[in-house]
Amino acid sequence: MPSTSTRKPNRLAVNNQGFCSIFGIKAAIIIVGFILLVSVLSLFYLSTWTIITKHKYALLASAYLYAISTYLLLISTLITCIAIIALFITAWTEHIKGLKLTLLILILTFIFEITTGLLAFGYTVNLDERLSTNLLETIQHKYYYVKRKTRTFDQMQRRFRCCGSKSFKDWQLNSNFNLSMASAVPDSCCKSYEPQCAQKPYGKHPSNIFYEGCSLALYRFYRPHLITLGCVTVGVAFLQICTIILLVWLIKHIEKITAFNRPVIPQGKIRRLSNEITYYPIQSSQSVK
Length: 289
Prior knowledge:
The protein has helices at residues 11-14, 22-53, 55-60, 64-93, 96-123, 127-142, 147-160, 201-204, 214-261, 267-275, 285-288. With 289 residues, it is mostly helical. α2 (22-53) packs antiparallel against α9 (214-261), α5 (96-123) runs antiparallel to α9 and α6 packs across α9.
């Protein structure tokens, strides 16, 4: 009877089925990458809105770390969006070098994003004390002397209906409001705002001046936003690490299949070919004759 040879199952073929197949991994990357792209675009919008609406008062309170981290987050989200689009193309075409470059970019932007998220949470610690100290420094040394900060401080007091850092009495630290003939506070502290209102008799009365300090108003203005920014950033970073894991899995899978399908010359044949010597017989002079 003819002997039937039993063939061992191909482990690579078994592991390349269903979700573990290249098509399954690419489908998972596209789904997670699309969710990540929407989340990153939301974070990009949030960062842009933060720079437009909130940086003016952050710089007034000397919150330079907050300003720099927001700009870094904006640049990081923009690069991440480009990397995700490149990921879709390279994953579909299985371009191994493009996938590795995209992986490197995603890892770098992930580090930036998680760092910014942690900074946003950390910045909420003792936020009220830092705002109060920085506003007092601005009142004492920069208001009236730096026109840009003077204009921004007046806009802040009118918008939040506040005066000084902790109270309107903080303006006594500024020499321009510590004279007996001058007004005790800037005009922006008046409830009924008009030019030089604080120099008029009714303007000097405490009933016409905002009592609440601006540090508390800024604290209520920034703290919920910082928490929201931190939560969104950490959520995006979590989706990004899932995309990175899937991308590493796809790269390893493609490399295994490429190595499996590459033709390999047996080692024994290589040795035989290297040891073969071709002899050419030399004809003698008698045979020539």
